[in-house]
Specification:
The structure is a homodimer of 162-residue chains. With 162 residues, chain A is mainly α. Chain A has 7 helices and 2 strands, in the order αααββαααα. Chain A is elongated. The complex binds iron/sulfur cluster (2 copies). The structure holds a DNA duplex (30 and 30 nucleotides).
Chain lengths: 162, 162
DNA sequence: GTTTTGCGGATATTCTGTATCCTTAATTTG
DNA sequence: CAAATTAAGGATACAGAATATCCGCAAAAC
């Protein structure tokens, strides 16, 4: 069980978009270059963010992406689910139905305990991600990243933001 | 991100093994038949449990598997990690190293905030699974499964247990 | 009108999960 | 002892998902 690398990409891109001045856009090209990622494929991740209404887009030169809401109104789960999907990590194939001892026509009223426990763990994972806001991430990064790198990165970004 | 179906299989098999009388073994053949699973492939899952020292095995006719410890000393995480592996679900490909603004020779002292937050969620998932013991599962199942089915299943099992 | 951009569809490639088969060694049964 | 049964592990095939690239389209900027 492993998350797609697009999750990492999307999180990093959102962190960058969170630092954009009001009303400006940043293109896929710039984001791909900044992170050293395949432009065409990163585009798919950004499209996922767009479909989840996490980002606004505009076309044409000087077009690109910007956050649809403030970084404090977007949490990690929003971003992760946009890319990874909302499906639970444990899928029940209902193997208990194959039990040869089962009376014919026996109908299970609810999902069995195994599934419920696995889903509970899944919910704990989601809860943790839900509690971390994009603004929290930006706060941590701005403290941890070396100031000169932090600054030159955003100069680099602003030069390319439409 | 989806868990392998072997996880479900392993959990169900352990629940059955937990109901075996002291010292008896149950074969792959019986477990596969009971759950309607491909015997050869289920065998791989059981081998994982064996490698993780969760079950004891013995060869020959009347051989098979039994729990290596009491059901109260085995938790969900033990079983899940045995078949799914202990790797974290989020893998960091360190894309920040591609930042063109990076000073040459810049060395990151620690994993970045994105990775740490994702790993924290992973830990929450594991914690939840760690807190549920196999004996808890058996307790719930014995209450929820219709008594006649519960009983006939274990009669079926005992008839095949070596 | 030309360029740039996001978007979606189509396609190819690589990797993982699923599944089967076969050999070997240990153990029970007769 | 001989035959049957079992777990273990290696080899291999198959299916589906993740990764990646390419193309055509419509909207926006200039
Ligand atoms: S016991 Fe639970 S997890 Fe297993 S098949 Fe039934 S519903 Fe699914
Ligand atoms: S920012 Fe974190 S998750 Fe992203 S590449 Fe760097 S270390 Fe990995």
């Amino acid at each position: 069980m492993i998350l797609k690398s697009q999750v990492e990409w999307a999180l990093h891109c959102c962190a960058i978009l969170a630092g954009l001045p009001e009303g400006r856009y940043l293109s896929t090209k710039a984001l791909a270059e900044l992170h050293g990622l395949p432009k065409e494929y990163l585009s798919k991740a950004l499209q996922s963010l767009s479909q989840a209404s996490l980002v606004d887009t505009t076309l044409g030169p000087s077009g690109g992406y910007r956050l649809a809401r403030s970084p404090s109104e977007i949490n990690f789960l929003d971003i992760v689910e946009a890319v990874e999907g909302k499906a639970r990590s444990f899928t029940c194939t209902n193997i208990r139905e194959n039990n040869p001892c089962r009376p014919a026509g026996y109908c299970d009223s609810k999902p069995c305990a195994v599934a419920r426990i696995m889903w509970e763990a899944d919910e704990a994972w989601r809860d943790t991600l839900r509690r971390v806001r994009l603004s929290d991430l930006v706060g941590i990064l701005s403290e941890e990243v070396r100031p000169d790198l932090w600054q030159s990165t955003f100069e680099w970004v602003l030069k390319r933001a439409g």
